[in-house]
Protein: Mevalonate kinase
Organism: Carassius auratus
Amino acid sequence: MQTSEFLVSAPGKVILHGEHSVVHGKVALAVSVNLRTHLRLQATSSGDVRINLPNIDTFLSWEITALQPLLAGCKEQDGLKEPDADLLKRLREFTGISDDSTDTRSMAVLAFLYMYLTVFAGSLASITVSVWSELPTGAGLGSSAAYNVCLSAALLSARGTISSPLTPQLESARWRKEELELINRWAFMGEKIIHGNPSGVDNAVGTWGGFLRYHAGNITPLSWVPILRILLTNTKVPRSTKVLVSGVKDKINKFPSIMNPVLESISAVSVTCEQTLTEMAAHGPSADYYNILEELIDINQHHLNVMGVGHSSLDTLCRVTLARGLHSKLTGAGGGGCGITLLRPETDTSMIQSTIEELKACGFDCWETSIGAPGVQQHSSAALSQDILKILNSY
Ligand SMILES: Nc1ncnc2c1ncn2[C@@H]1O[C@H](COP(=O)(O)OP(=O)(O)OP(=O)(O)O)[C@@H](O)[C@H]1O
Ligand SMILES: C[C@@](O)(CCO)CC(=O)[O-]
Ligand SMILES: [Mg+2]
């Protein structure tokens, strides 16, 4: 390893429209948010691999000599299509993590060990990885994808598979397009381990940043969209994306003739939203356009309830905001977690403040977010705040 320390970060995301239906090949619109996951990788000489995950109170280490035998008989990664089932099985046995586990710590450890072993397969290196995130864990803002994108970028750079784009003159830097594609593909592997059946939209936003249209693996950046103001509410109701995604699949299998038209309709909502945003960018963001965006939010929220991924806490969010003329929907996998509320340009500050207060009184966290943050980056320590450095350096 040429460099002894790597600092990287990746953003979380909100899905405007298309969660769940995107898993079944439909269109989704998603945008990065200004909350990031930060990772520090250090080369060490301890002969151990160590992971520190303070958000989930997990601090573990393994001797390299104990990990090495897990790689016996491993094939070359088959074009990074599917995780190696044999290696995963051995890893589950080694860590004592069962097949049906959705436990936060188990999933984070499994994704880390899998990515570490496959990236460093030829020569396992002694490293310490510390991750700390500003994103709520498991709340619909793409915390798993930001985690996987950071792991992928740092491990691939440390291994020398991709470059280390930071030069002494820069505080932050991004990789070349082909390298970002590789980061995204490895992060998708991590998502497969955590989610079971991810669409790839979340890791695409974590890698590329900005506003994206995602359709069956095709990523189209939308650079011309108008600036939208969004209120984010975390209901703090815990949920697992893996469980919710598999519940939707069961429903589609049980009632295909009922559920497939719902998926089609959600796709049409995404397409209509994209058209509306294009027209807003060209003609100015008039009230008529906002009325359309609000109706699309309401339609999609009803569809998501039909798919079984609503929650009474999200109903409360919709009711409280609608009483003030504001429209909300869940974002991400639903079942609790976060919702978004569209703010109109004329929505006045005191009304936003009173909405936030009322949502907080319901036990929720609520704040106005800024969207369109950059994708994965490598940083010098000068680029990071003292608070973040203190956390990452304390292990
Ligand atoms: N900061 C973190 N440290 C360690 N593990 C994390 C961290 N953030 C996320 N994870 C892993 O990701 C899992 C959460 O992923 P999950 O997909 O269920 O939620 P999400 O990504 O926040 O929401 P969504 O997928 O709906 O956007 C956690 O259980 C944990 O394994
Ligand atoms: C629910 C889902 O559509 C979005 C989770 O943020 C799952 C996925 O796309 O992988
Ligand atoms: Mg996730």
